[in-house]
């Protein structure tokens, strides 16, 4: 996850691959991480700002990130998966334009309530793990509203989902107080 910070005195996102291990573990005098504000890639831009940027592409040319990658290749008909990086990829991310803005703001959120990444087909950060995180959050909302559960969510297919048309962040669920819920459950 990229970290919100300053690059050359301007707001930006420091890509995780560009953050040294020392920087990632740096604490301030109060014991708080110095680089703690992760970018979950939810951004709002003014259309006029985007038009200015896209009409001036030379501004972006100096913003490429160099990523060293393991690139599989074929030699004499045999596919080889290298153990060490053997290729260079030039990457440009849409948050690289932050430094071209004169005004910006960031919102701090609770990761467990607002962020369930989906980057992989299976395992960690997959649709399955994101669904589980959302289900756990919605069960917490129901418990806080006074509901109890008849079965355990560990059972396969025992998910809980509350439509954002009913509640966006756990509000307005008082009507569920005292109710016994059997999973799977959707509201």
UniProtKB/TrEMBL annotation:
Gene Ontology biological-process entries: UDP-N-acetylglucosamine biosynthetic process
Stored SUPFAM superfamilies: Nucleotide-diphospho-sugar transferases (SSF53448)
GO molecular function: UDP-N-acetylglucosamine diphosphorylase activity
Family the entry assigns: Belongs to the UDPGP type 1 family.
Classification via PANTHER family: LD24639P, UDP- GLUCOSE PYROPHOSPHORYLASE
Protein name: Uncharacterized protein
Organism whose genome encodes this protein: Stentor coeruleus
């Amino acid at each position: 996850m990229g970290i919100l910070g300053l690059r050359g005195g301007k707001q930006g996102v420091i890509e995780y691959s560009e953050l040294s291990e020392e920087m990632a573990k740096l604490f301030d005098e109060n014991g708080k991480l110095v680089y703690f504000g992760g970018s979950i890639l939810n951004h709002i831009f003014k259309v006029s700002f985007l038009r200015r940027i896209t009409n001036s592409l030379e501004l972006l040319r100096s913003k490429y990130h160099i990523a060293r990658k393991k690139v599989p290749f074929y030699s004499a008909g045999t596919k080889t998966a290298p153990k060490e990086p053997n290729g260079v990829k030039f990457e440009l991310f849409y948050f690289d334009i932050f430094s071209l803005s004169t005004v910006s703001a960031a919102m701090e959120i609770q990761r467990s309530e607002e962020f369930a990444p989906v980057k992989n087909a299976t395992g960690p950060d997959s649709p399955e793990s994101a669904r589980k995180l959302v289900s756990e959050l919605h069960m917490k909302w129901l418990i806080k509203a006074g509901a109890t559960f008849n079965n355990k969510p560990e059972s396969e297919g025992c998910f809980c989902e509350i439509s954002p048309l009913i509640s966006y962040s756990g509000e307005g669920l008082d009507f569920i107080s005292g109710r016994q819920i059997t999973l799977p459950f959707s509201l």
